[in-house]
Amino acid sequence: MFEYILAENNLTDASTWHYTDFLLLKRIIEEKTKAVINERTLKRLADTLYTQTDENIPKTGTLNILAQCAGYADWYDYNIKTGTVHLNEKKGKIRDKIKISLKIKLLLLAIGLTITLFLVLIINRQVKPTINFSQIALINKYENFKTFPNTFYIKYSILPTMKDSVFLHIICDQCVYSDLVSIRKYLSPLDTMISVRLKEPGAYIAYMQWENINSDTIHLFCTSDNWLFSFYDNNNVSIYYQPVQPQNGIMLSSAGNLQLTNMPANQIQRKKSKFTFINKLPVLLDQCSIEFRLRKDSIEGVGCNLSKIIFYGKNNRIRLQFGDIRCSDQTKILVSDHHFQNINHNIPALRHDITQWTDVKITIKDKTFNLFLNGNLSHSAKYLHSLDSLCGITFWFIEGGAIDYIRCFNAKNSLVFSEEFNQ
């Protein structure tokens, strides 16, 4: 192509060229080839010219002239009198230093940003949001707030590292919410108090939970005469039982006095009050069934003592829960989807006169939840949202209580997990 362009423009004899001829050649080549004249193109063109011109014309000199045409004027000096172009070594070295210096600066900047990002990720993983327990308290009276009869004000302090992943769950028995928008409230570091108003002096808060996805979950479970403390993470479960004692731990009376103080470790008594099952082979919670058998408590008249069943999805988040199962003629079941839009139902279930073993089966299909007791359908509810994988099940027992086995089935009714327990 170069030979054709040279012949077409009468430029085959480079010894007769002037500087303007090189500029013309540069423009013609760029128009013909639609390409930028780079170093490789210059060398090819110089080779072509060298074979067609007088041998006395240095090949490097031709290349320098072509480089001038390609736009590298700062690197070369043009002699108007002789029409020659030669390399200015001083300018070239300065330009090389500038380019190398800029590359080094960009490389160092990239390395610095990478290290900074890596350190930020490590720090964020290690710093777990925590609740300052020394400043959490439940009191029935507080300054600068209007006090309603039978109202608890939950005063707490949240460290700034908690950000936006902390929620408070409160389940009440015989109580209403005055300042709570829903049963699950976001706790902002700017908030310091939530109020819960009880219907009557004998009512009590049944359950409280501080939830943080990236940290340990803290549960405070309350019955009318005691509190159960549970501090656990995804792998370890620890249960602490603290009976009501004046001047120590939790104190709850019909007058509405409730306090949380620091409990000495040697005064905490362990008691089996919760059983946790974690499924290592998750199944889809919107297309599965779970079977388990409750064991009647040996205490006369107490019944099964099962107080709560909680189903967990990914990241240990609550996806479905049944609360206030009292083993009475009328059992209140609390069903919550993963957006915590709550549905309350009163259904007959788990009577005092149950047999020694009570079979329970829960099926979830097409966003419909069904509860079977001893083979009979006791409850059915439609869900508003689909649920994710089932990763864990927690059974709460007030005092004692146990289950005999648990089985999980997938959408095709195939057994994916089965385990028996001897408690």
3D architecture notes:
This protein is 20% helix and 38% strand. With 423 residues, the protein is of the alpha+beta class. Among the domains are: 2-87, no CATH class; 274-423, Jelly Rolls (Sandwich). A hairpin with a 4-residue loop joins β1 and β2 (84-87). The longest helix has 38 residues, at 89-126. The relative contact order is 0.08. Residues 56-60, 71-87, 126-150, 152-175, 177-193, 199-274, 297-303 and 324-356 have low confidence and may be disordered.
Give the strand order, joined by hyphens, for the main sheet: 7-5-9-10-11-12
Enumerate how many helices there are, as a single number.
Answer: 5
Estimate percent helicity.
10-25%
Report Rg. Answer: 40 Å
The CATH class assignment of the domain at 274-423 is Mainly Beta
A few lines on this structure:
With 423 residues, this protein is of the alpha+beta class. The protein has helices at 2-8, 19-33, 39-52, 59-69, 89-126; strands at residues 76-79, 84-87, 137-139, 151-155, 166-173, 175-177, 184-186, 193-198, 204-212, 217-222, 226-232, 237-243, 250-252, 258-260, 274-284, 287-295, 306-312, 318-323, 331-336, 342-347, 357-365, 368-373, 376-382, 389-397, 402-409, 415-420. The chain has five helices and 26 strands.
What topology does this entry show?
Blueprint lengths: L1 H7 L10 H15 L5 H14 L6 H11 L6 E4 L4 E4 L1 H38 L10 E3 L11 E5 L10 E8 L1 E3 L6 E3 L6 E6 L5 E9 L4 E6 L3 E7 L4 E7 L6 E3 L5 E3 L13 E11 L2 E9 L10 E7 L5 E6 L7 E6 L5 E6 L9 E9 L2 E6 L2 E7 L6 E9 L4 E8 L5 E6 L3
Antiparallel strand pairs: 1-2, 3-4, 4-8, 5-7, 5-9, 6-8, 9-10, 10-11, 11-12, 13-14, 15-24, 16-21, 16-25, 17-18, 17-24, 19-20, 21-22, 22-23, 25-26
